[in-house]
Records
---
Amino acid sequence: MAINIMTLIMVLIQVESAGNDLAIGDGGKAYGCLQMHAAYVQDAAEFAGEDWVHEDAFDRETSIEIFLAYMGRYATEDRLGRKVSAEDIARIHNGGLYGYNRKATLKYWNKVRAKLVDTLNNNK
């Protein structure tokens, strides 16, 4: 399933927070529309040379920039040894740098895939 990265991000936002930019989840550890943990933000900031802090995840535009930096670091063809898929991206977002390989992220991917299919069918 070849899809546009922004379509995937919008679907992830729906799955993660139902579009709520001020969402707090995972026992208070996940912030914003993409439900980012502090380590995720710090990791992306380090890679991108930015000074993002956890609270920046509450801003949708910044949250998307953080997401893109994190994926720029971990969801790459060089790192995975093959073409990166929407599944890889979603599972890395959910499970960290090795999320694409973790059984625990399959349920999350199935939820994202169902929402993607629904979104793509509704946009025909």
Note: The two ends are 15 Å apart (CA to CA).
---
Amino acid sequence: MNNNITHAAIVPLIGGLPLAMESVFGKKPEYVLSYTPFEANDSQYRDYHNNTIPYYRIDKNEAPSSLKSVDVVGATCPCAGLSSLSPSSSTDNKANDWMVESAKYVLGKVKPKVFWGENAPRLASKMGEPIVEKLRVIAKENGYTMSLYKTKSKFHGLSQTRDRAFYFFWQGESIPHMPFYGRQHEKIEDTIRNAFVSDDDPMNVLVNEKKPSEDAFYDYVLKEIEGGITHQEFFQKIDKSTNPLVYIESKGIKYNEVEPWLREKGYEKEADRALRMYKKLESGGNIMRKTTEIAKDYVGAFVGHMPCCITHPDEDRYLTIRECLEIMKMPKDFQLQGGRKNLNMICQNVPVTTAEDMSRVILYWLNGKLDTKKAEFGVFDNKKQTYEFEEIPQTLEKFI
């Protein structure tokens, strides 16, 4: 912790990244910058601090002309433009413009020692090359170098395997040698169990009020395949996360064999679906397998259907809002305003502990504790534990 370092946030969304900076730098941000389209998400972070942090919308020209200089600015610009989990992702998706616009503003007007942000892993891929090239031009025009850091949440101790990319602008002509991380991850079942705060916690609301065992295909697994065991007994039996469809297929059972049982038990819609899935697979096609997720050891990306479909390890139920917040390592006293209708805001976020590791790298650099390399651009791959620096401008493709 270093109370001498000042920081600010731009497009904080629900707040994972600025909360990480608060933890590492030991103080709240001096101010928050953003744009009108992100007010709803930003309001969650602002409300957590009782609206005591100055908030300026850039597109409304609310920031004072003499905006206070800070050492670090952190961003959480939307990643849907490059996310493999978004059907609309592409190089020219308008969502990518926020990275470019925020970089122009921060590097040109705020001029911190470090500007950094989190985005989808494709930022550090061929698809992200056009955006990165734009960012590099902005960096050079304003006296900064740039680096990318590819990683996976699991390497930072989390119980999800979501790939992420961080981008950094370093004031000057050098880039620090960023350390690699490979922490032992906390098991998802322990994350869920450790989430409890108190009986009267407003976040103890279930995100899905149905019972997992009422899922027709999971009912088939428990009763027909496993001979009538409970959800808790099934959890104890498996070694890793699974869902009923994956489990049925792993047993070599085809869906036309499942259909009669479903129909006999009154699951008419699911029986019809089983036949459709059977025909689709037999014809060489594929099927959607987004359903109840019996989570054990670790899970995939905590987005989309996952918050509403992950099961509790010990009880026949889905998660509470508090347990969802815990998976993203939000503070124990954080309250999601709007409750379940704003559940997706938790996913549109960077896990706090992952961002803390990146914040510590910045802290080490500011305190002169990292070796540096004179270079314009660098790519660090925490998954492969490799890095490359570019002293003479080349294309991003060389680094992929």
Note: Residues 277 and 287 are 6 Å apart (CA to CA).
